[in-house]
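Entry:
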Amino acid sequence: MTLTPDTSQAKSPSAPSEHHGPATVLTPLGLLTVLLGASLSSIDFFIVNVALPSIEHDLDASPATLEMVVAGYAVAYAVLLVLGGRLGDTFGRRRLFLWGVAAFGVTSLACGLAPGAWWLVGARVAQGAASALMLPQVLGTIHATTSGERRARTVALYGAVSGIAGLLGQALGGALVAADLAGTGWRAVFLVNVPIAAAALLVGVRAVPDSRAARPARSDVLGTILFAGALTALLLPLTEGRATGWPLWSVLLLAAAPLLGLAFAGVERRAERGGGSPLLPPSLLREPGVRSSLVLGLPIFIGFSGFMFGFAIVLQQGLGYGALKAGLTVIPMGLTQVPASMLVPRLVRRWGARAMTRAAVVHAVGLAVLALTLLWTSWSDLSPLALAPGLLLCGAGQGVQLALYYRLALAAVPAARAGAGGGLTATVQQSCLALGVATVGSLFLGLVPDVGMRGAFEAALAVQGVGLAALALGSLRLASSPGAGGGPSLRGSA
């Protein structure tokens, strides 16, 4: 497998061919519009981190409820992403993108007007579902309407936007909470989405090209139910179990998750062998590039979300920063993350898949610098400037990782399965983001009472460092595997 083959015209014998509407070229305005949609969905995963103390005070929310405000969005998002990609394949990616944008605006309004904590949780779940309609169409549209070097640049830009959106979410959230516009406080972090979604909807009608599968696939009701059940059974107890004392329901759900996963895999295999239309074709997972990228995505996204969740708490509760100062502190990560993402095509031509290895090393060095800064400096004297060197290195490593993940993931996906491939890629991303909060975030919160916030965050950084070591070793193995993308063919196709 090469890292960026031109698969824009590739079709498998059993896959439906690709059909495009009147506008088949992704113009700069169309690209800007779909990337705006992608950034909205990513921003809203992180934007609430710095608003949680205000939400807790205003709505009298318990710690478990606050975790659900974050995780409810992520779980609904992850569970429905593959279905969103399938719907785009069937009904048209532009139509589903526009529906998703409209639903995102409405559900953001519902979040901003929430009268109570559980209303907010419900609105966040609905907002996650809207994002699941919107995001797969972005990757699917890029994959179906670009090819060659232009696709490589566009995917790199998508990776840059995906990464910077998380950082922008916390910075923007802090600014909006601190500004307290018209007395809206934390509600502004949701209300700001409404005019942006309206603008994206108006422009998207004309600027976003349409694409879909020529022969619409039949619905896979049983597969959809089992897939949703397996992900929910895994993510919900991992998110809420610690905060609620690991009640019986959480243990039972965790036990049921692998059984539901096995049942889903069996149903999908039977559907594909029988000529049906499985929600997630097993043959897609047999593509070496798809499998490799999914495995490499685990430490990337689990580490990213766990870090951002814990760091937001450290900044506000440990260092005593206000919401605005805490949000602005992460800006150095963005200053290096965007240019690093855009350099990925050049880095791949030079180093092949080893670019991921080098990025993991740079990221690990950044974590070490940040850990030493937190360890050796009195927290009462610790300024955002002192944290900047470590964050700059983290951003550079992370920028390459994100862009290269999407490039790997989409390289082997036939254009006729662009929606399903985009949905699968984004599902791994969102599932791992939720897992990061549920595992690394819960570890951090669980250690605070025993070892203090400094010790707890050092432990969380150590866990992320182990993940980066695994990423570096995994990418080395990928680079050295025959046909895995580490040789001359990779550099030539970049």
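The mean pLDDT is 83.
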